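Before going further, learn to read the protein records used in this course. Taken together, the tokens spell out the fold as the letters spell out the chain. A record is reproduced here so that you can trace the correspondence yourselves:

***
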Amino acid sequence: MVKLANRAIDVFLDAPQAGIVAVLLYGEDNGLVRERAARLAVAVVDDPNDPFRVAEVNAAMLKEVPTRLFDEMAALSLTGGRRLVRLDRAGNGNSAAIEAVLDDPAISTSDSLLLVEAGALAPRDSLRKLFETRKNAAAIPCYLDDGRSLEALIGEIMGQHGLQVEPSAMAYLCDNLGTDRQITRSELEKLALYKGRNGGAVSLDDAEANVGDGAPMARDDVALAAASGDQAGLDRALMKCRIAGESPIAILRAVIRHLQRLHLLSLKAANGADIGELIKSFRPPIFFKHQPQMQRQLRDWRPQRLAQALNILTEAELDCKTTGLPADAICGRALIRIANAARPRFSR
């Protein structure tokens, strides 16, 4: 089986296909990895905390006893029913142990399922390639909620509480959530609880009072400063992000999302559309406080330059994951290049 498509993930999580021995959950959104792992675990065993049917294995255990994973997968459930073996925080160093499990005929006919949780993996990483190329394994990516998917999630969760979200509040929530599915859900549940006491539609004041700890706003400040060529503002925003513990990849992703929106808007503006109307009607909605700055940026950036800037950021993100060089330095250099390119003498 190859990497599961988005439309097939929900069906698979609730009823894993027969013949699948191992499932890999990986991606930048650690909260979504945990959420999907919990959902899959419930589909396999009635009680994920049952020690007779669930075994927890980690990388340290495999280092001490390389056959531990194989032994757990081959063991029989003492109380009957399917057995679940969970490997947390897996990496490429665990590929050989997992491959031995996938290659063994006895394991393939057993009723055990190996659930592997990992962070972000590049297409060339051995762990990801192993799961994407084996017929008895499945790989499920857990990407950050973004754009329409984040707006849909917000609408879904608020709708479960009978709440509507005003456009300005939706724009704010989209800009300040999405880096971790569990945190997003927690923040929205907190907002719903607050509105349950006050009634009415969720307003911008409600959203600002209940959601966010400053870190998402700092990422927005980085994106806006970089796209405006404001080097001093970029330095201040990066410092706020570092104080808040934001990862370089999360910062790069925020700037990529911002430039993607600018690129799409600039293509439409090049065909004669009114920039102000484009920004007001954009989905998901753009936070109103950012709209004037984005109008100025669209006058300074052209589609081709934005495409080049997106390539710089994408390469920087890949370098952060694969080169072993300091990620903060890679991120900082890429953002300086974007800020320099945003200055009028480069962008016109």
